[in-house]
Amino acid sequence: MTVEKNFFKEGKLDRDNLARFVKEVKKFPGLTDEDAAVLAASKLINAQPHSAMWYRIGTIRNLSGGRRMEPALDARLRQVYETMNDQKSPLSELASPVDPESNAIIEFHAATVAVKENTGKFSITVWRHGNLERQARVRVKSIDGTARRGEDYIAINEILTFEEHQKEKQVIVEIVNDNKWEANEEFFLRLSLLDSGNNVKLGRISIMEVTILDDDNPGIISFEKRGLLVKESAGSVCIPLKRSRGADGDVTVQWKTIDKSAISGRDYKGGSGEIKFKHAEVHRILEIPIINDFDPEKDECFEIELFNPTGGARIGNINRVAITIANDDDFNSVMDRLMVLTNANIDAIKVHTNTWCQQIKQAMLVNGGDVKNATNCDYVLHFFSFFWKVLFSLVPPPGIFGGWLCFFCSLICIGFMTAIIGDLATIFGCLIGLHDTITAITFVALGTSLPDTLASRMVTRGELYADGALIHITGSIAVNVLMGVGLPWFVAACYHELQGTVFNVPSGSLGFSVLMYSVAAVIAVVLIIVRRNLAVFGKAEIGGPTATRWFTVVVLVILWILYITFTWLQTYGVIEANF
């Protein structure tokens, strides 16, 4: 079951579900409240059932550099998102603080490492804690970020086997030095379980970010923030430490807790200790247990101080962090903020705007005004589609008169565009010496079906069932036929009736074309039925094993080519078929 259904049933947002979701998100180190809100908005969007029109609108926006239908996720958030949705390693496989005795917990030693481009090979530590009495296996795989496999690093996809009582395994990572200047780049290492059984769980740090940089200093160690807020019932607080301006060599730093209004042993389990940053590691997590006494009381706080660094490292400016243990009321205010942030992310990607001015403004700006997340491709597509985007932004917004004004104006625009496309296609065919029939079933059909094809692809990838993919093709064909052919014929028939004449439409090659199309359609339907019932195809109409998937593609493309070829031959008189 995906995270969407675990936390946001039917795409509805409420405080309890959001609180549970944020608690799970915080298992991934280094995520802020803003990151959690963006992830929550993405999950909500994916949890909601979407109509065929939603996917069609999304496809058109993608093809024209318009505003996205989902929140933009950077490389790190994308990896967290995919990890949370991975069927082989769902959140239920992430270990909780209460089960280390029965489970072997496997995770990276640090959440982030940074290495120089000329480092060559270096090792990453994967460690196991908890139950060490049995063998455990885990897969580690590299995933591209801004760094690309083969160009910036050598891809990794290997299985680590921990024998009984073995605590650590090393993964060798190789960086490619291309001898040219580049900005800092990153890629990711991801742990996944080979078997959800055997009492093996993934720890909090199941994703590691590897940054490629040019620096050879031991670095400066500090806390990431000066203060953190934690709910009393949270169980523990994770304090992130960072190592900046270098990551060369092994370094350590000592820490100790300092009582303020919160007292160690009564409100939290304090003490002192040492944290070790291995070579190239730039992020570590310090976890302090929180004691919930279930008594109503004011906010309490304590501090943690860093001191005595070794290995040439230095202490940074943020050498102390204040931990505030909040009561429920204060925690509710934090949840209110997260609710606002999540709703703001959802509102930013809603299908339509409320005012005409907003609609026109979004049409004139690349990516609907979200320039920060716009790509180079978005700018190119926006440039070529700018005229049409601004023109159709003049159509009234759907919020006016219940959407009816938008509907009728859109219908007029569709008729206008259909007439233009038909005339331009005829002129184009005339210029290159192509018969109208061939022009219609090739250039016009491909051009008008492109958005529907891409929208159908989005449906098959985004929905549990792919039935909605058929709506795009059948709906598009119905509109093209009824608007492009039926409406002109109807107007012509009315005109001739008023003039007392007869309106005749020569059949031409229609009969032969319909016959060839019907034969191809029957073969395609038989192929779909076969796919549904044979295990070699995955017992599904779409997807399945790679070999059979490509076999289906080849068969369908051949059918389309044969249909075009035979229709072409009949149209130009090579094949005699007068029906």
From TrEMBL:
It is a multi-pass membrane protein. It is found in: Cell membrane. Keywords: Antiport, Calcium, Calcium transport, Calmodulin-binding, Cell membrane, Glycoprotein, Ion transport, Membrane, Metal-binding, Repeat, Signal, Sodium, Sodium transport, Transmembrane, Transmembrane helix, Transport. It holds the Pfam family Calx-beta. GO terms for biological process: calcium ion import across plasma membrane; cell communication. GO terms for cellular component: axon; postsynapse; sarcolemma. SUPFAM superfamilies: CalX-like (SSF141072). It catalyses: Ca(2+)(in) + 3 Na(+)(out) = Ca(2+)(out) + 3 Na(+)(in). The chain crosses the membrane at residues 402-420, 426-448, 469-490, 510-530, 550-569. The keyword NAD does not apply. Residues 93-192, 208-307 form the Calx-beta domain. GO terms for molecular function: calcium:sodium antiporter activity; calmodulin binding; metal ion binding. Belongs to the Ca(2+):cation antiporter (CaCA) (TC 2.A.19) family. SLC8 subfamily. This is Calx-beta domain-containing protein. It comes from Clastoptera arizonana.
